[in-house]
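[SOLVED] Predicted holo structure with nicotinamide-adenine-dinucleotide

Edit: marking solved, answer below. Original request kept for reference. I posted the sequence and ligand SMILES and asked for the 3D complex as structure tokens.
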Amino acid sequence: MTELLGGKVAVVTGAASGIGLAAARRLASLGATVLAVDIDGDGAERAAKELGGRWHRADVSHSESWERIAFAAAELGGTDVAFLNAGVTTGQQDITALSDDEYRRIMGVNVDGVVFGVRALVPQMAAKGGGAVVATSSLAGLIAFPGDPIYTSTKHAVVGLIRALAPRLAEQHVTVNAVCPSLVDTPLIDGEIRDELARAGFPLIAPEAVARAVEQCVTGVETGQAVFVQLGWPPTAYRFGHPPGPRIEEAQGKVPPGWLAEQPS
Ligand SMILES: NC(=O)c1ccc[n+]([C@@H]2O[C@H](COP(=O)([O-])OP(=O)(O)OC[C@H]3O[C@@H](n4cnc5c(N)ncnc54)[C@H](O)[C@@H]3O)[C@@H](O)[C@H]2O)c1
């Protein structure tokens, strides 16, 4: 049987654990050579050994890390697939209690880690004639999650970034999609949250279900999609509404009478 990703190089961040590890296994099972990236170097090394791939210890929130990650990927022949997945939460509901360090850390990992990753790896994909970027957002990137408003804002940022990047990257035959999982059974929710979720009766998705959504994004032709992963559903592209666009003709007839006249010409 021909392997779907035979000969391809897949960079996976957060590959030491949870969703990243499950996706790294899935991509490797499809024939890809995986470069496992994680701040947990031991975990990344374990993943690479299991998958016959390579590993790199790096903090994805630092732009300098990405020069080294890109170099490691280039040594393998250049990136075909980037799964930009590493992420953290604050667990902080009260914004007045949020420290600068907590704020910078989550923005750094969840947003900068995706921005820097796309910037560093897309040129390698373009040079190879195309590729696929998948970033891990969350259901919290599509809905408002009051339990962690800053986490919610980072995941909305990922969805906006992916959607806005898609048309330009399509010119280089690079697809770019986000996966938006509901609650997943990984160490990220260990501790009090896990107990609270169990008490509330919330079911958890297996990380392998998210890995299947990643495969769908990587092997498909769709781009600019936010694919939600929820129990009882196949991975499904979320359908966004259409707010009035910036062109005046789009707005005409759809705004309260008199409003257009008040706008500067
Ligand atoms: N678990 C859930 O319920 C859930 C739901 C929706 C989205 N997500 C998202 O899925 C992604 C993966 O989370 P997970 O649930 O597998 O958690 P996890 O904690 O099992 O895995 C996260 C991995 O990211 C690594 N990491 C953290 N900071 C890093 C950094 N600065 N640089 C490099 N690696 C770093 C960790 O060492 C860990 O291996 C995250 O983006 C998370 O926000 C998780």
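OP edit: The mean pLDDT is 94. Thanks to everyone who chimed in.
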